[in-house]
Specification:
There is one protein chain. This protein is an alpha/beta fold. Helix content is 40%, strand content 19%. Helix 2 packs parallel to helix 9. The structure holds nicotinamide-adenine-dinucleotide.
């Protein structure tokens, strides 16, 4: 283990957390927070050991208001820049993220406790977002001709204007991706951004803010306010022109209500209880490791991870046995290397929730097929990947999001039963289908109530910059990625020029005659309109 514990190395201001991350670096990152009014600090824990990693300002509502004002001022000039100029900044940011990956991987791991391979997904994601929107923003947002009210006589254009300041509230589970990945399209659309990362994991967002400035982003355009969501959420909704929230469904409801009261638009990326379906013809050689990845990625603290596994009776016994065996073989540990398959949970609350769900299920009769316990020998918040059979509706684990490496496995007698049970959830974020018949798999996918459905993959195939990502039902409102992931950060405006005559009864016709002529014209336009663009 490359981290030393408190007893081996008492906390000092000169603490070197890794070859690349020192207490001094974390102090410099904390100083980037917009925090002129803050008088207190918040301790950030390193989940691998439970030690205090560093301190960040306990931001106040006044800090949020000031950050919004600063971002708004910087946005005036940024909005005047061409898409090509904004893209140049994003492409430099892309390179800087990749060139400095080792440092941010350490920071992500230190503040979230995740395995390095899962932290690397964040590095890739943010770089891909920067590249994608650098190359596509203009195509999505440049002014374009539209058909006006009267064919030929009306010339119309669609314009997109930046909203101003976008507020982003992000959770702790993907502290780089979810704080910064959505900031990229918001910035490319000409906005300023104020990010409020989770208090558990503020350093990744602060690091990225510094790198964006190094890449050429105007100072002040992207602000990070560190602090507690319950205190800073309302002032951010007040100060921003649009709110993008990623987090639990319970908090999302509150934030969406605040935004709605102020008639501000928002998007909500919320929780999930995602199902994986193993059809009788699935390749178990692929499906078993796919399910392991779906259950254990980021220690199951992933909104699109797998918590329900529905297996056709024809392959249930073999699949369940192999899945349990593979989960038992997952390598857990706290190192800052790529050796481990899975890291720690983020902290004590998450551990209590995961242990509570497992204890409740086992107490009510569920059977543990793999794992089931904590691993305090590795660190305070490590838990084993866990598979449970015999899970019933009266158990917390059955319907509530656990957000840990814990899944329930169910035997199903038909494919229809698998789809019905997958859809029997208030959530609808992600699903995964395993079958050799991918044509049938695609048809089946359209019957699954989830914003993304991966065939022969657990969650990654649909997480792509060009494809919309978001939730059905209580898993969210709106989409990130693709055109929907950037157009929402603009106000659309239609401008039309009317030629030759007003859209009204011409002077040489009575209103009655005008109505007759227009009714006849409508019949013709039914055929002609598709030809007029
Ligand atoms: P959370 O809702 O507790 O916190 C998320 C963010 O909201 C944090 O920054 C927090 O400080 C802030 N917050 C808390 N109370 C607030 C309030 N009253 N007003 C405004 N902001 C407030 O969620 P969490 O436990 O940190 O994150 C895990 C949840 O996020 C899971 O449910 C997971 O599925 C979901 N999630 C969804 C996606 C997605 O893309 N759909 C991605 C990641 C996580």
């Amino acid at each position: 283990m490359s981290l030393s514990t408190q007893s081996e190395a008492p906390e000092t201001t000169a603490r070197q957390w890794s070859p690349r991350v020192s207490a001094a670096l974390l102090g410099r990152l904390a100083a980037r927070a917009a925090a002129a009014a803050a008088t207190k600090t918040i301790a950030v824990e390193a989940p691998f050991t439970g030690e205090v990693l560093g301190q960040v300002p306990h931001g106040t509502p006044a800090d949020v208001a000031a950050a919004c004002a600063t971002a708004r001022e910087a946005q005036q000039e940024w909005a005047q820049r061409s898409f090509a100029e904004r893209a140049a900044v994003m492409l430099r940011f892309h390179d800087l993220v990749i060139d400095n990956a080792a440092e941010i991987l350490d920071i992500i791991q230190l503040e979230s406790g995740k395995a390095r391979r899962h932290a690397f997904e964040e590095v890739l994601d943010v770089a891909i977002q920067a590249r994608y929107y650098a190359h596509t923003a203009a195509a999505f947002l440049e002014p374009r001709r539209r058909q006006g009210a009267l064919p030929v006589l009306t010339k119309a254009w669609e314009y997109h204007h930046p909203r101003g300041v976008i507020g982003i509230i992000s959770p702790w589970n993907y502290p780089l991706t979810l704080a910064v990945g959505d900031a990229v399209p918001a910035l490319m659309a000409g906005n300023g951004v104020v990010v409020k990362p989770d208090a558990l994991t503020p350093f990744s967002a602060l690091w990225a803010a510094g790198l964006l400035e190094e890449a050429g982003l105007p100072r002040g355009l992207l602000q990070v306010v560190t602090g507690r969501g319950a205190e800073l959420g309302k002032p951010l909704v007040d100060g921003a022109d649009y709110l993008l929230f990623t987090g639990s469904t319970a908090t999302g409801r509150k934030v969406a209500a605040l935004a709605a009261e102020r008639l501000k638009d928002s998007s909500m990326e919320l929780g999930g209880k995602n199902a994986l379906l193993v059809l009788p013809d699935a390749s178990l050689r692929r499906a078993v490791p796919g399910a392991v990845r779906g259950i254990t990625s980021n220690s199951g603290q992933l909104c699109i991870s797998i918590e329900r596994v529905y297996v056709h009776a024809a392959v249930y016994d073999v699949f369940a046995a192999r899945l349990a065996e593979s989960l038992r073989a997952v390598r857990l540990g706290p190192s800052l290397t790529f050796v481990e398959d899975m890291g720690s949970l983020v902290g004590a609350d998450q551990l209590a929730k995961v242990e509570g769900h497992v204890a409740d299920a086992v107490g009510k009769g569920a059977v543990v097929l793999a794992g089931g316990g904590a691993r305090p020998d590795l660190g305070p918040y490590f838990v084993e990947p866990t598979l449970l059979a015999g899970v019933s509706d009266d158990m917390d684990l059955c319907r509530a999001e656990t957000f840990g490496p814990v899944a329930a496995i169910y035997r199903c007698d038909s494919v229809q039963e698998m789809v019905d049970r997958a859809n029997d959830s208030s959530y609808g974020l992600n699903a995964s289908i395993w079958t050799r018949d991918t044509r049938f798999g695609r048809e089946l996918a359209t019957r699954v109530e989830a914003g993304t459905v991966n065939i022969n993959e657990a969650y990654s195939a649909t997480w792509a910059s060009a494809s919309p990502m978001g939730g059905f039902k209580e898993s969210g409102l709106g989409r990130r990625h693709g055109s929907q992931g950037i157009v929402k950060f603009n106000e659309a405006q239609t401008v039309a020029v009317e030629r030759l005559m007003a859209i009204d009864t011409p002077p040489f016709l009575s209103h009655q005659q005008y109505a007759t002529v227009m009714s006849a014209a409508m019949k013709l336009l039914k055929y002609a309109a598709p030809l007029i663009k």
